[in-house]
């Protein structure tokens, strides 16, 4: 297999003028207003925490105390405040045409997905999209009957399905082998265990065609399909519905969605080819997106383009997936430094990832032991200011819930009541995520074996 490399063309600029200038707030002003409010909140947090800081400094010294409290309170509080204010300003621009009819290719990399690939293809066949869909299923060194099931399903559902075989393991190999056969302007990547809402393709294509000409990719909205499973799955339902969605809306507002996730996103085919296809990385979608951003392109997020995926319902599987995500972030940082990004928004958004290992490590090695100590009456680490992060988190989730409620109503969906899952998500999710992410960082530092699934 050989990919064609082209010299990247400079992005074309398009100026979007507001219809009502009296209420229009430029992106740069939203950015700095959000930062100003966040800074004020952090100053307040520092003032409230001075007794806590002094008490802890008597135990571990002042510099170490400041290092710990900044990682578990000041910086998380600042970031949460920035998220809340930004979400208040966010407003998704309207579509120019909600019913595009371009022919679009869909790439599905599948490794031992014989049990689910037929279901995935059946949902593609039910799309309300007016254009033609050309589906490529890439059997990536499967040991089951993925290849045969995909062929039979394509015929049964009257889909234009081409089944390819890629013997070299690795999702990037599978996607790149299919990219050679793509002849359409736009290409969608879809995970083999991910099913689409009937309007998902239509809204995803409508967004990229409605966007300025320097937008080369749009990330769809991924939600949880198996949320009626155990508590772990029910907890993840809220992470996808509120947590991940809020981050993507924040990044989309500042024209820098940092991951056009492979699970469901659309790309300009020629832009992907210009940048050499999907890279050899465990987080191939993260690295690719950052490379596109570095070269002057932009990435959007479309909340109406909804797909549903099966999340891990066992702790080992969950840990494997999330440590892989953390490792992919480190890979992206190593290949594309935040200061290499062309715009201030992107420098900031990618720069946040530079401090994520610090926050996760401090949480894991300091906050969790501090929580245990608090049960024995030692409040050195878990203090009052730590609790100031929680109201901001709940406020941001409140904004997201109302927005997602509107999205669901438009799509004819209903938000399932999952109070226990929400409680566990708010109170205990970070206790799982930070240690797992820390393990992912260690995997990348010591170059441990990559695991796709």
E-strand count? 8
State the strand order across the main sheet: 3-2-1-4-7-6-8-5
The average pLDDT value, as a whole number, equals: 90
Reading the helices and strands in chain order gives HHEHEHEHEEHEHEHHEHHHH
Largest sheet: 8 strands, mixed
Give the overall silhouette: globular
Estimated helix fraction: 40-55%
Can you tell me the residue ranges where pLDDT is under 50 for at least 5 consecutive residues? Answer: 1-22
Content of β-strand: 5-15%
Proper CATH architecture of the domain at 104-340: Alpha-Beta Complex
Task: From the alpha carbons, calculate the radius of gyration and give it in angstroms.
Answer: 22 Å
- CA-CA gap between termini: 24 Å
Would you tell me the structural class of the helices and strands?
A: alpha/beta
Q: Tell me, what is the CATH class of the domain at 104-340?
A: Alpha Beta
Count every helix, treating DSSP H or I runs of 4 or more residues as helices: 13
Per the CATH scheme, the topology name of the domain at 104-340 is Spore Coat Polysaccharide Biosynthesis Protein SpsA, Chain A
The CATH homologous superfamily of the domain at 104-340 is termed Spore Coat Polysaccharide Biosynthesis Protein SpsA, Chain A
């Amino acid at each position: 297999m050989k990919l064609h490399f082209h010299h990247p063309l400079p992005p074309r600029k398009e100026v979007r003028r507001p219809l009502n200038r009296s209420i229009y707030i430029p992106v740069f002003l939203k950015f700095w207003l959000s930062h100003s409010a966040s800074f004020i909140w952090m100053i307040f947090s520092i003032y409230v925490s001075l007794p806590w800081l002094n008490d802890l400094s008597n135990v571990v010294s002042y510099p170490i105390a400041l290092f710990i409290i900044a990682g578990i309170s000041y910086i998380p509080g600042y970031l949460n405040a920035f998220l809340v204010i930004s979400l208040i300003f966010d407003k998704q621009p309207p579509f120019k045409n909600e019913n595009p009819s371009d022919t679009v290719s869909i790439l599905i990399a599948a490794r031992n997905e014989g049990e689910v690939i037929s279901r995935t293809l059946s949902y593609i066949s039910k799309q309300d999209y007016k254009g033609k869909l050309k589906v490529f299923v890439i059997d990536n060194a499967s040991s089951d009957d993925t290849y045969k099931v995909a062929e039979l399903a394509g015929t049964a559902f009257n889909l234009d399905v081409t089944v390819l075989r890629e013997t070299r393991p690795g999702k990037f190999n599978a996607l790149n082998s299919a990219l050679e056969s793509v002849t359409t302007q736009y290409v969608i990547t879809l995970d083999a265990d991910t099913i689409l809402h009937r309007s998902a393709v239509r809204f995803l294509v409508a967004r990229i065609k409605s966007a300025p000409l320097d937008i080369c990719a749009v990330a769809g909205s991924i939600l949880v399909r198996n949320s009626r499973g155990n508590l772990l799955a029910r907890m993840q339902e809220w992470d996808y519905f509120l947590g991940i969605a809020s981050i993507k809306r924040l990044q989309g507002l500042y024209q820098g969605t940092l991951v056009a996730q492979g699970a469901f996103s659309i790309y300009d085919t020629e832009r992907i080819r210009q940048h050499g296809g999907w890279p050899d990385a465990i987080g191939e979608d993260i690295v690719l997106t950052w490379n596109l951003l570095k070269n002057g392109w932009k990435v959007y997020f479309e909340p109406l383009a909804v797909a549903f995926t099966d999340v891990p319902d066992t702790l080992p599987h969950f840990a494997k997936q999330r440590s892989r995500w953390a490792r992919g972030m480190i890979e992206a940082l190593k290949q594309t430094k935040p200061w290499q990004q062309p715009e201030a928004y992107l420098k900031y958004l990618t720069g946040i990832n530079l401090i994520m290992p610090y926050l996760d490590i401090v949480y894991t090695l300091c906050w969790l032991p501090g929580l245990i100590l608090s049960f024995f009456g030692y409040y050195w680490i878990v203090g009052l200011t730590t609790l100031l992060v929680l109201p901001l988190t709940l406020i941001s989730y409140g904004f997201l819930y109302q927005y997602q409620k509107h999205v669901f109503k438009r799509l004819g969906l209903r938000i399932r009541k999952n109070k226990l899952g929400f409680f566990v998500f708010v109170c205990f999710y970070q206790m799982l995520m930070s240690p797992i992410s820390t393990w992912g960082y260690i995997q990348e530092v010591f170059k441990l074996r990559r695991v796709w699934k």
